[in-house]
Specification:
Blueprint: H1 2-16, H2 25-58, H3 65-98
Length: 101
């Protein structure tokens, strides 16, 4: 699934990023937990939307279509947010690496 790939990329980048002497290990872990939690939430929304879609195809009368559309829209928004976060992280990393020393 696309979310799992993005989650692995972001978490790997965070874990492998060089740490500053000013940031404590607790602060770095808190940021990792924050990003990880956001990715877990996005993955959960994807699963909910997928399950509702499957249920709607098997028994259309058992699913409220408005709820289905809302769940799919929320999952899509979360995915777009995570992709944007990944892109901005890569862009910031690239800018930092291009800075002269």
């Amino acid at each position: 699934m696309a979310i799992e790939s993005i989650q692995n990329q972001v978490l790997t980048a965070i874990e492998n990023a060089p740490t500053s002497s000013k940031a404590t290990q607790t602060q770095a872990k808190s940021f990792t937990d924050l990003v990880g939690g956001a990715l877990e939430g996005a993955l959960e929304k994807q699963k909910i939307a997928e399950n509702m879609s499957i249920q709607a195809t098997q028994d259309p009368s058992s699913v409220n279509m408005q709820d289905l559309i809302t769940a799919v829209s929320e999952a899509e928004l979360q995915l777009q947010t995570m992709v944007s976060l990944r892109d901005k992280t890569v862009q910031a990393y690239t800018k930092i690496m291009d800075m002269p020393i």
